[in-house]
Amino acid sequence: MEAVQRNRFLPRPDPDSIFVGDGNFQAVGAEFLGHFIRKGGVQPESRVLDIGCGIGRMAVPLTQYLDPAKGSYRGIDPVTGGINWCQQKISPAYPNFEFRHLDIAHSLYNPKGAVNGLELKLPFESRQFDFIIMTSVVTHLPDEEVNAYLQEVERVLAPGGRLFMTAFVVDKTAQENAFNKRDARLGFQRYDEGPCWFVPELPPLAAVGFDDGFLDNSLTRAGLSITTKSLGHWRGVASDHYQDLFIAECKGDT
Description:
By secondary structure, the protein is an alpha/beta fold.
């Protein structure tokens, strides 16, 4: 992690082109590399899929970890600009890293997209990935699309493969914010009668939280077994990660 963070030769986008959240691009990527290894169990020879790869924030540090002969990385995203940058700046130096634009419609990131998120079909054969990343993806999806994504994740994960997913779980602590320690930007309020929570001051899909238990049930229904559920410090509790974290394993047949 320290080597990745200090490496001034690693590609990094212009600050004005980063659309994947706040924080230092290289430092956040290095932090997540540590989480992928220590918590998620990713290995140098893993076959990795990054859903919502953005502009390479998770890909860049993984270039220093995945074995170029045995490991591989595939990144998909609906934002053309991010994919173009990754194809130009990462793939030429790391040919085991490939990036693909997936034209999924999204009101914020790809409003003219051709593919309805409810009809998502990942462009990969079944059972071919050992480790799937979904960082800050379900935080921008309605509940029905979360279910569609997780069904596809289960299909393309190899038996024993793992999903690493971050989210906002609106539990009692996050709702009540009794000690005023919750991130002030995330004053979630429930949306209609469903499991979704939105931030009133923001566009609906800018930040999405879910009832505690919704994501657990969605993962289970998709055929995934939760191995880790760890709540993040956005809600004002002590934690070594900001968003909430789920790690789930595929028990599917070969």
